[in-house]
Protein: Bactericidal permeability-increasing protein
Amino acid sequence: VAHEPMLLLALTDFVANSAAFTYFTAGALHRNISSDMIPRRFPLQLKTKSMEVFAPQLQKYYPDHPMELHLSARKQPLFSCRPDALHGALFSSAEAFVVLPNATRVPAFLLNIDANVTGKPTISRNRLGGTVSLKGMGACPMPGSRGLSVPQVKRLENLLKFSLWLFGVPWANSECCPHPVP
Structure:
């Protein structure tokens, strides 16, 4: 009789949401992205020149200055555990800053970005892994967005979706790389 390896993993909504609450209240769901962290091959860099199509006034007032993006959870993520996958609703904000030569940061725009993601565990050849997929995402400007119009936000939202599909989801999947099952 051949023995197949088996892994029993139990995760409840309570455990997943308790972990999300802990990370959120500890302030761990925050990430700053600077212009030097963006891959050179990516078509849009964190520079005012690249953002000109979304916010023309940035290039006008701050020609070719680097920018920073501050991403943070504005509410606790919510998770739902199902037999086939872990579903999550993420509620974040993205605040962009122009970085001046004296290192002063000037607020450029602020967006709320909400996303629905699904993570599925996988077992292949005695290795535990997983895949992540983006099920939906939306962005809306917040007060203080400094002149981002609805069409500009829509273009920026489409670019963010494209970026997540091109870079974010593959990165998340590489982080979920298979690990040996004992």
About this structure: Strands lie at 30-34, 67-73, 78-81, 86-99, 105-124, 127-141, 179-180.
